[in-house]
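Quick illustration for those who missed Monday's session on complexes.
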Amino acid sequence: MERQGLNAKVSTNDCKGENISRKRKIAEHRKSLPVASVENLLIQEVHRNNTLIIVGETGSGKTTQIPQFLFNAGFCRDGKAIGVTQPRRVAAVTVAKRVAEECGVEVGQKVGYSIRFEDVTSSSTRIKYMTDGLLLREALLDPYLSRYSVIIVDEAHERTVNTDVLLGFLKKVQKTRSRSLNDSFNTRNTNISGLVLENGNNGKYVSSLRQHRGRKLPPLKLIIMSASLDARLFSEYFGGARAFRVQGRQYPVAIFYTRKHVSDYSEGTLITIFQIHLEESPGDILAFLTGQEEIESIENLAKDKIQKLPESKRNLVIIPIYSALPSEQQLRVFAPTPPGVRKVILATNIAETSVTIPGIKYVIDPGFVKARTYDPNKGMESLIVFPTSKAQALQRSGRAGREGPGKCFRQYPEDMFYKLEDSTKPEIKRCNLSNVILQLKALGVDNVTEFDFLEEPPRQAIFKSLEQLILLGAIANDGKLSDPVGHQMARIPLDPIYSKALIVASQSNCLEEMLITVSMLSVESIFYHPREKLEEARAKMKSFSSPEGDHLTLINVYQSAEEFLNKKKLELSKEKLEKSLRKWCKENFINSRSLRHARDIHSQIRRHVEQMGLPLHSCGDDMLQFCRCLAASFFLNVATKQPDGTYRDCASGEMVQIHPSSVLFRKKPDCVIFNEFVQTNHKYIRNITRIDRLWLSELAPNYYALKS
Ligand code: ADP
Ligand code: MG
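Prediction with adenosine-5'-diphosphate bound:
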């Protein structure tokens, strides 16, 4: 904000001057990065090895520089591209923008990015940053990844489920790529083309086959980059692949612990921010929090507190960063602060290794992270706040010593640190695998248990997830994707249960409503309830609430916002329209960032379903029809009321409660469908709609006839 104000005042000549000096600064910065001194050596290694593992401290320049080295070394000749995968959307976006600037081009030209729901690339893109999940989706259309000469799997140590699956898939592609496509046509890979052709994506794919038939594709170079020191696992998996180490720079970081256990780490974090600000020397602060909701609440509290400081101490700016933040706001963390102003960044664990923020001298680490967990016996997946591992705690404190000696304030006593797990369990061992299985099957891997995983997921989880896909009708009796439902589900970039809901809704003439529902369910916390205005916020929420439940309530919010925008559209410019929507959100206690994210998701999925030819009808005022459609879609998530007012989840038998944020919290209907488990000190279900249990045997006869 401050920067904009300053820029507005400078003349065009000054702007030119500023541009030149910024360019010079960037060039100097690039030269000073640890990877810069090993450029030639690195390129040699890539020429010599088809698979290379690069290990280097966070901030050494791996993500931003290495793709540029490869480009300059000629790896994009013949129009081929370098693909760089990231586990996180934020990293793909911010890094692409930075690298585009370093190259002096507009993002989307030579350097671009592609993440789910946002593609900023063009035919001239040669360095493409993307999420690991997105590359897997691309593989459905181009199973040999023929447009890439090099794939860099970045942040491999994060071990997201998509990274793990991608590594297995790339290993296979590498083997096939050196053979001629004519040969491989007669091998198992026929499966791949067969499926994709059936899938209806054939236009693009057939042409890519024609282009390469009978011709050898160049071998696929694979680079695996990781911040952690343990490269052995990756090296062994790729048949003893060579590991290359980049020497980083790290200054000492003093670690401080609390004397006693901290009962409320949000409060602890807030207090520590102000202690540092008032007592410590200049330098920016980075605090690790667990999610959007927590970040926003601390952001608001901190902003209030700043106002209460004496004028001379108000030189503190609070900047949030998390994955659902609109991308232009994500870049704010990199903007230098004016002299004398201290920046406080409130981040999720994306700032651990994915995004390197300059200027950090102080780190606050409450010691928690939000992560997925899956109970394969019960088939329950939930997001839980866990203690970090030792490796994560070390990564976090390391962020304070990038540019000089720093300090890290851990919000727990020292003996706690020694009790932490050494490293984080890979996600593939603690998540629902139905998405993975669906994707592997779409890629032609029919027997998932035979897939060459870096580390095997639990068998029980595979079977439970397979069972879920069969119940959703995605898998046919022969174990392959069903036609057309399974194929359609694999094409929609959503959780299988949501993809299925869209297909069911298209058949019951309420796809409009279901599209809004899944978009709103894909974002965190639409409503917000500030402590000081609780009653007012509740009253506003009531004005949107539907007696049927949360799904219709969310639709009401979305449609009211659309109505508001439609009314204002004619009189306001785009910018003013956005601003007035933010004002509308504020008045209605709606989280405008979440709503905006939901609207983006909505327009993207809408494009997908339109391309697939699903009829986009609305059921208008026929709420009964929509509720029946919800029951038909989410029949795997049904809970029934018990005499004591708690609920029993029909699938797992687990006892749960309605989450206090639900509009049905006090109403307690007999039978509900829900979309989420939340586990804190209680087990809650969230996003709930009342249904008639008699519908179930009619709408999901296979499942409920078996059950009763
Ligand atoms: P690594 O991948 O080894 O962790 P990066 O290539 O991400 O390192 O970062 C190298 C340097 O570039 C860091 O000093 C970082 O602060 C800087 N940097 C990265 N992205 C941006 C950005 N969007 N704006 C400004 N500086 C950035
Ligand atoms: Mg990096």
